[in-house]
Design a protein that fits this description.
It is a single chain. This protein is mainly α and about 725 residues long. Helix 11 runs antiparallel to helix 15. It has 31 helices and two strands. The longest helix is centred in the last third of the chain and has 70 residues. The chain has a two-stranded antiparallel sheet. It folds into three domains: about 130 residues, no CATH class; about 210 residues, no CATH class; about 190 residues, no CATH class. It is elongated, with a radius of gyration of 39 Å. A hairpin with a 2-residue loop joins strand 1 and strand 2. Keywords: DNA-binding, Membrane, Metal-binding, Nucleus, Transcription, Transcription regulation, Transmembrane, Transmembrane helix. One of its GO terms (molecular function) is zinc ion binding. This is Zn(2)-C6 fungal-type domain-containing protein. InterPro entries: Fungal_SecMet_Regulators, XnlR_reg_dom, Zn2-C6_fun-type_DNA-bd_sf, Zn2Cys6_DnaBD. One of its GO terms (biological process) is DNA-templated transcription.
Length: about 725
């Protein structure tokens, strides 16, 4: 036995009493920082920043028995070789473990445990107080006591037997390795889309470790098992896109969810995962929220998305960490995860007409940005799509917010939003073109979804105007006594934008169908096609071109294909068909009212012409009779001096004057006042009924408008 071994065996000072750490992880060694193990296998720095933590030398047995290994993050304790290289490279660039801007006491910062420095303000407050009073930056005993109390509070507890049973049941349900590899490849190819769920290189490395090493700590880590099960479940939904044409295997499971077996185990582990202070406690509910969207977008999915968002807020992902101990790679992972959760949650709440979850002003973390050292290890590098999606959702967020200013301010804001949408589209890279993209490429559906949400933003901007135009036309023709104001030019323009966006969206789905990229398990696809079809139906109330019927038929056919095996989606198709029936009835009544109005105007014009002709004939006969009478008088009577005629005006002129006066009085005092008074009375009697009848259409309540466009009816809840 060598001298070093003897020294290790006869250690005279207990670990808790040593001034120097008994061992250090690779990261702290490279940075020459004090390494303090907060929990078994994880030091305070790595645990606080969610870093991978690795110790080359095993710890003493006496220490290993102190706490349970459940709270360890073994999935992050093992890093692939390329991650190790990045770790050393990052360590060379960070010699100072603390940010000068934070002005934290060295000893205080080193003893902050489990990320509490990000969630509790007292370390910064106390250290800045010491600086303000020109005191020694070293932590006082009271501060060290607080740190010790926090460390004690965050220590892990042994798993409850019921938790162990759920964990073992989930591990037993892991698919064979080839199946797991297939589901992971499908997940990365089709489900990643515009989002960042996790570091793909890390999760693949952890899956390798789980299957290759039966003694791996990952097998006792419920956070990893829950995340893996959620990944398998979401990947299973997209397997139909990988089914070859010549496949002889048919599942015959139109009414079953392909990922149900994995979802069941992941759901069972969520209660045990909620209080875990790790990124996986955010990622797992996020994945389950996405997985549940087709079946329960407004039910379980909405709850899971809210849970992921709340956990992200509790983990301060919405803030940019000041501590330089968080290297660029980990910082970018946090940013991408936050914006993926926030953007999808906000987009979904807009589409489902749900209230905003958090104020956008509290988000301080920058947008995702390219990072070669992270992007080069991703199986599907979608950072450009993440950036474009984040910017688009921020525009949609502003569009969905009601403008409370004056009419001029609202019009100005609308023009600004329209300009922002156009600029967003112009800013897309040239290769974001579906016509030039291989339909089998992973990027095809990702780009499709970007354009889908782009046209949805236009629909959101113009849906109120579209309904207003249809309402005004119906009221003008079906309620003649009503005099609705003519829509403004801005309203007409927004209505055209909305109808055009609906047509463009249906063209996108036509391309998706032709390239055989349509799938039944996509809430985004189904909801987008539903809205485009309903917008087309509402616009068709007032105007239908030659392609109207074909567009509506295609939209309904496409919805029926996507509704296969999904009861809630089938309910959505029934709703769209009901909207079609209503809009057809409204269009027919509008056509009849227009025809009747035209006939009435023709009759009135004909009657007016007939009355005029009668009046002209009567006047001609009267003048002829008067002329003949004058001739007879001149023939019988002698000539009368001119002065005599002036002194004695003819009685016929007086009679004519009296008739005209009487006629004018008859029109002004009898006909007009009585008719107007009668009409006003009828109008006053009719107004309550008329306004009650159209009160729903007159309301600009977003809830009503969202219901009209199908968002509230397609609630996808309670039918799993």
């Amino acid at each position: 036995m060598d001298f070093a071994s003897k020294r290790r065996r006869r250690r005279r000072v207990a670990d808790e009493n040593r001034k120097r750490a008994p061992r250090a992880c690779d990261r702290c060694k490279a940075r020459k920082s004090k390494c303090v193990e907060a929990i078994p296998g994880r030091c305070q720095r790595c645990f606080a920043s969610n870093f991978a933590c690795r110790f080359e030398r095993a710890r003493s047995p006496s220490v290993q028995d102190i706490t349970s290994s459940d709270f360890t993050e073994p999935g992050e304790a093992t890093v692939s070789s390329n991650s190790q290289a990045r770790l050393l490279q990052d360590d060379d660039n960070h010699n100072d473990p603390l940010s000068p801007a934070s002005v934290l006491s060295q000893r205080l910062a080193e003893h902050v445990v489990a990320g509490q420095s990000k969630r509790t303000p007292w370390p910064n407050i106390l250290s800045r107080l010491r600086e303000a009073f020109s005191l020694d930056p070293d932590a006082a005993p009271e501060e060290r006591d607080m740190v010790s109390m926090q460390a004690h509070m965050t220590r892990s507890k042994a798993l409850h037997p019921s938790e162990v049973a759920r964990l073992h049941a989930a591990i037993d349900a892991f698919p064979p390795r080839p199946i797991a590899d297939f589901l992971l490849s499908v997940f990365i190819k089709h489900a990643t889309d515009t989002f960042f769920y996790f570091d793909q290189d890390q999760i693949l490395s952890e899956i390798d470790q789980f299957y290759d090493d039966t003694t791996s700590p990952l097998r006792s880590d419920l956070s990893f098992v829950c995340l893996a099960m959620a990944t398998f479940a979401l990947g299973s939904q997209w397997t139909p896109l990988e089914r070859p044409d010549e496949s002889a295997v048919s599942l015959h499971r139109d009414n079953d969810d392909l990922g149900q077996v994995f979802y069941t185990h992941a759901k069972a582990l969520i209660p045990d995962l909620i209080d875990r202070p790790c990124l996986r406690s955010i990622q797992a509910p996020f994945l389950l929220g996405v997985y549940l969207m087709p079946a329960s977008a407004i039910g379980s999915s909405y709850v899971y998305m809210g849970l992921a968002l709340r956990k992200a807020l509790a983990f301060d992902l919405h803030l940019d960490p000041e501590d330089q101990a968080v290297d660029g790679r980990e910082r970018e992972v946090r940013r991408r995860l936050w914006w993926s959760i926030y953007s999808l949650e906000r987009c979904t709440t807009v589409k489902l007409n749900r209230p905003r979850s958090i104020d956008a002003n509290v988000v301080k973390v920058p947008h995702p940005s390219p990072l070669p050292e992270l992007d080069c290890w991703q199986r599907y590098d979608n950072i450009q799509f993440q950036m474009a999606y984040t910017r688009l959702i921020k525009i949609l967020d502003r569009i969905a917010e009601p403008c409370t200013g004056t009419e001029a301010e609202q019009q100005s804001e609308s023009e600004t939003q329209a300009s922002d949408l156009r600029q967003w589209k112009k800013s897309l890279p040239l290769n974001f073109n579906l016509d030039d993209m291989d339909p089998k490429d992973s990027r095809y559906r990702t780009i499709f979804h970007l354009y889908l949400n782009y046209y949805y933003a236009w629909i959101t901007m113009g849906k109120i105007a579209l309904v207003a135009i249809a309402r005004t036309s119906l009221r003008r023709h079906m309620v003649p006594t009503s005099r609705p104001p003519d829509p403004s030019e801005a309203t007409l323009r927004q209505s055209r934008y909305c109808a055009k966006a609906g047509r463009k969206l249906l063209l996108l789905f036509e391309n998706l169908t032709q390239t055989r990229n349509i799938t039944r398990f996509s809430f985004t696809d189904f909801q987008g096609c539903s809205i485009a079809t309903i917008v087309t139906l509402v616009a068709g109330i007032t105007e239908r071109d030659s392609g109207y019927n074909s567009r509506v038929k295609f939209g309904l056919d496409c919805l029926q294909k996507m509704a296969t095996g999904n009861v809630t989606a089938k309910l959505g198709v029934k709703f769209v068909e009901a909207v079609q029936s209503i809009t057809n009835e409204a269009a027919e009544k509008l056509h009849q009212a227009s025809s009747m109005l035209g006939e009435r105007q023709d009759v009135q014009a004909s009657a007016s012409a007939s009355d005029y002709n009668q009046w002209a004939e009567w006047l001609t006969r009267l003048e002829r009779s008067h002329t003949m009478e004058q001739r007879a008088i001149h023939e019988v009577e002698p000539e009368v001096p001119f002065l005599h005629i002036v002194q004695h005006p003819p009685h016929s002129n007086e009679n004519m004057s009296d008739w005209r006066t009487a006629g004018e009085q008859s029109i002004s005092e009898s006909s007009i006042p009585q008719n107007l008074a009668h009409g006003s009375g009828m109008l006053r009697e009719f107004q309550p009924l008329e306004y009650d009848l159209w009160s729903g259409l007159q309301s600009d309540d977003p809830a009503f408008l969202m219901g009209l466009t199908g968002l509230d009816v397609l609630d996808f809840s309670g039918f799993t």
